[in-house]
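Convert to structure. Protein one:
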Amino acid sequence: MYYFLCHLALVDVGFTTSVVPPLLTSLSGWVLQLPRAGCMAQLCLSLALGSAECVLLAVMALDRAAAVCNPLRYASLASPFLCRTLAGASWLGGLANSAAQTALLAARPLCAPRCLDHFICELPALLQLACRSGRSATESQMFAARVVILLVPSAVILASYIAVGRAVWGMHSSAGWRKAASTCGSHLTAVCLFYGSATYTYLQPTHSYKQDRGKFVSLFYTVVTPALNPLIYTLRNKEVKGAALRLWRSLGRP
């Protein structure tokens, strides 16, 4: 569990590092001017990190399902080699999806006005700037890629939690229910926060995308969710809560 949390922390650090500086620039009242290459680079980075988090959350759901459904075999099922392979697949899947979508968008000419009412180079907002000639084919290809990177991990997460629900339903002790809830509760909270906002942003037609509302929703999965993940995962951990309580008591001493 902690191995995958380390990778999730790396993704969240990358998200905030790539998004917060332009966000602070926009809030200060300055108009951020980026060349097209710089905008494509920011898009590629944010797409890679977001896609990697999609796959990584699905991997973490499989890990939770293995821990709850097969606790006695968990050590053999979650071997170090398998964990490294799944984590590497998450990063490679995110990079492949980002490279494909960025290449498709970079091949399209942008029409005036080349101005985004956004704090980052967001994919749906950039698609609205693409010239209309031949845009429908590119949109269809990119939409298919977004469906794969969002719905396939969602199906894995759903199947994992169905298995967890069946295992919990068969438990006859309240202690087992509490332990399963403690194991899965934090991950399920993070999944709802991230997938809810990302699905709204990327699984809607380009013509219906509104930049005013899109900025608010994008703020959730790029800034709010990475900021809340440390609290979501650590405050449900008994060892972390104990360490925080000891630190608080030591600070209160004269």
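Protein two, convert as well:
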Amino acid sequence: MEKQDDATQLLPDDLLAEILGRLTPRWLAASRCVCKAWQAIIDSRRLLHEDLLPLSLGGIYFNFHDERHSVFFSRPSTRPIISGMFTDYTPNANRVEDHCNGLLLLWGGVANPATRQWAPFPEPPPPCTEIKGVCQLSNYLMYDPTISSHYEIFQIPCALDRYHDELDPMDDTSQWPPSPSVLNVFSSRTREWEKRSYVREGEAAGTVADMALSFPYDHFNGVYWQGALYVHCEADFVMR
């Protein structure tokens, strides 16, 4: 956009702030990146809620293979702001399974280290028949505070390592990921697990036997980005 074509430069700051203030947090955050003038207006009038979109890093959690709980590292100046010790507000010394936009997915619940809040969730139902016995399940957290205060937890299957579990010969030749896949999903809105069906787009990444030989990991990394969950799975493919 050329300077002479930018009509917003003709608007008084108060009027522009009134217009920007009517945007949802997601689009307000995007507008902050348009130009320095808009960024100055949004920041000086504190239009973005800092509790929803924190602007500083409180610390980093590390998982080590020989530790059953996560280790928290932070600068001394951040320690009064965020609690890295789960024993302060959770039932036991916990381990981070996943994280998303300030919330931590732990064993058996979701924690907010900034507010020291803990929300346990019930045991999930057993996996569906088409994947039971040939996979293990990993939990992933989906949370966007600019859209809703509620979050969801997805159980994503990954094929078992044949060194850890005996596979039925018929399962060896099954396509992976299966289609349809019925996943367990927990919603903080209903406080219940439900089953959701997903159909694979495109070709299968391989067979169950191919997946079982690829990566003997216990948990695959995932990220929630722009409304979709991406999980790095076996055989070096990504499931969206």
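Residues 36-44 form the longest helix (9 residues). Confidence is low (pLDDT under 50) at residues 162-167.
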